[in-house]
Amino acid sequence: MSRTEVNGMSAPQGEAVRIDGKAMAKAMTEEIRQKVDVLVEQGHGLPGLAVVLVGNDPASEVYVKNKALQTHRAGMRSFMHMMPESTSQDELLRLIADLNSNEKIHGILVQLPLPKQIDPAIVTNAIDPAKDVDGLGEANTGRLALGLNNGIVPCTPLGCLKLLQSVHQDMTGLHAVIIGASNLVGRPMAQLLLQQNCTVSIAHIHTKNIQELARQADILVVATGKAGLVRGDWIKPGATVIDVGITRVPTAEGKSRLVGDVVFDEARQIAGHITPVPGGVGPMTIACLLHNTFQAAQGAL
Description:
By secondary structure, the chain is of the alpha/beta class. The protein is built from ten helices and 13 strands. Belongs to the tetrahydrofolate dehydrogenase/cyclohydrolase family.
């Protein structure tokens, strides 16, 4: 595959090819819809996804509404549960227990972050592992760490992997560097890349000479939430760069725009392939949530 073409996309000679997560997510959602249609034709009910939002964080509200919209586009049922900021942990756990026992619901997602009075670990682990479509509970996390194929993989790392697979048919022996060691992205991403036979390094806030490590990466995944952390001179020529970060920053015109953890205009002059922000990892995260929900529905048959 040439540097200037991937999935029908092109780039000027000397610039990285943009990996179009939006287009990939649209195709993936349509494929899921077709599978749902077959499921219904076979006499089964529609897969159902329950999304729970506690509080009124504006960004979370946007994410939740978008997830509901995409769930409907995939031909599945969406169940929304909006709870006030004052919701207690016990109240939330009672709702989760009800959702666990509801046969119409195959996937449960509790939107993070949660109010300070609620422990996210307790809430996540209260979700039935078979319905934990975010893949963040201890059961699914453990299955991934053991290299088992019978668990649910977290949506964002799974989306990143699919983006990488659009560029690399075989990742065996490639050096993958992940900047960010969170349980949401960095750690599960490392497990997925190990399963692809990559040599994996994880960098974090305490890593020394992080720029030098990043420059060794054939695959660079950045998930820190720190806008513009990775500059062009951190990148190995021809590397594939997956930018998970997304931050809204003010512009000189008094407006705002979304940027990633990687300085895109610098990185695209050095990298071989790169995800944009927005339009890269974000849409694939939601598509993988739909994928996980469909898989959970199949498992419940």
